[in-house]
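Subject: sequence -> structure tokens, single chain

Hey, anyone have a minute? Need the predicted structure for the following. Not urgent.
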Amino acid sequence: AGVSSAPLVLSGGKEDLGALAMLEDSVKKLKSPKASPGPALSKAQ
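Reply:
Had a minute. Here:
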């Protein structure tokens, strides 16, 4: 998913970067259940 989203980020703006960051954070949560959701939520804001 990350690789296919790269072209969108290169040709997109800050909004795409923010959306991609949120997707990456959600993926990291799924892959790392031990990670606390606090830091991810603060980054989303």
